[in-house]
Specification:
Layout: E1 8-19, E2 22-34, E3 39-43, H1 50-57, E4 65-70, E5 73-74, H2 80-89, E6 90-93, H3 107-118, H4 124-137, H5 142-145, H6 155-167, E7 173-177, H7 185-202, E8 205-210, H8 213-219, E9 222-227, E10 230-236, H9 237-242, H10 247-254, H11 267-281, E11 290-293, E12 296-298
Parallel strand pairs: 3-8, 3-9, 6-7, 7-8
Antiparallel strand pairs: 1-2, 1-4, 4-5, 9-10, 10-12, 11-12
Helix pairs in contact: 3-6, 6-7, 10-11
The structure holds adenosine-5'-triphosphate (ATP).
Adenosine-5'-triphosphate is lined by residues 17, 19, 24, 26, 44, 46-52, 211.
Length: 303
Amino acid sequence: MTDSAPILALDNVSKVFHRGGSTVHAARAVSFALHPGRTLALVGESGSGKTTAARLIMREYRPDQGRLLFRGEPIEGSAVRDMKAYRSAVQMVFQDPFSSLNPVHTIRYHLERPMRLHQSSLKGAARDAAIAEVLTRVKLDPALILPKYPHELSGGQRQRISIARALAVNPEVIIADEPTSMLDVSVRLGILNLLNDMKRQLKLAVLYITHDIATARYVAEDIMVMYAGQIVEWGETESVLGNPQHPYTRLLLSAVPDPDRRFGDTRFSDELDRIDLIRRQSALEQPEVQEIGPNHFIRPMPV
Ligand SMILES: Nc1ncnc2c1ncn2[C@@H]1O[C@H](COP(=O)(O)OP(=O)(O)OP(=O)(O)O)[C@@H](O)[C@H]1O
């Protein structure tokens, strides 16, 4: 773990959705903290609540319970000036680099706009230099890329632009929601390496959201496994993945592609059904947290 103070923290945050007479507990007493220069991976299957956590951080949703803390202070009810600082400090990189860029605008526009909004003191040649710098950081050639439109770029280049746009406002926190899942396999590693480099060079705190435990292992020092809106196992990545204790973590690890496994294997869905049944029978109980080892915790399955 780390001794550095967290930049951003969720403290017992819950979010419930009501739809067509049913209730979905998308986040159940979720707590975690993001630290400078470290990546925390949030892993779980589709529907486990990962994007809800991201949206709560981006202030698209308000928590029903619990608090968000920014540099140790609750952000709910904070002054407009502090909210503005929060909005530039916390930036998002989306899953889909195709729809997150506006097809009618050039790349220059996409990078200039956030700078105008968040760094209005930067003008003229200084702004051009800052734009060139962020493009160079994401390993794109400014002279070639700036006049282009999104459709003239490859998927990997577009995702680099999305990262450059996030960096354009000097953020402290990056929320990356499945940033490589829509990219060709051949360019995924380049984007993950770029996120790793940015984290180290700029001391960014990164929340890396994924259903892919293998990439989480590659980029994240710390990991949380989310299941049905609840964080069920968390700690240092090597400890959690090297010694997984929760049945759901073990199940996710068993689903990492295995060349010896035959297509159409039903064990995964059978096991998931079994875990789900136990959870439903135990309703919304929050089991006591158990410490597995230094910086490794689980909320055991109810029995
Ligand atoms: N705005 C909403 N209204 C109603 N239900 C919602 C809303 N947003 C999310 N949910 C529900 O909350 C649960 C968690 O959804 P969420 O999108 O956070 O999961 P996820 O782990 O990010 O899934 P995916 O990987 O498919 O994006 C799901 O059951 C989803 O249907």
